[in-house]
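Chain A, query sequence.
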Amino acid sequence: MYGISLMISEDTLLKVENMELMKYRLLDTVIVKGKQKSIRVYQIFEGLSSKEEDLLQATKLGFELGIEAYLGRRFAEAVELFQNVQKQNAGDVPTKIYLERCKKAIQEGVSDDWNGVTKFTEK
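Chain A, predicted structure.
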């Protein structure tokens, strides 16, 4: 779905020894099929080419600020942040996904109980 090679849950990330040495970014908040509780998931940069890793590291802050704006229903601000990330890393699939989500939210609006959590219907 996200076009990435490695994704882990927050619980798993917190169990990693020397977590501060890992390169990662917040990816999404999701509810996995068959579960009720949402979890945060993270993209791990380890194992990527140095160019890909550098691009993700360079755009991490902007990407995560975009997610924060998205979850805060500040969709126009989120679009601007994600567009800036996309200018630096045009091939980043998660950025494209968030841009689509934001544009849809701007066009169609969101319900009062919208919380930005992605619900997976497949495993």
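Residues 79 and 99 are 6 Å apart (CA to CA). Strands lie at 7-9, 24-31, 39-44, 118-119.
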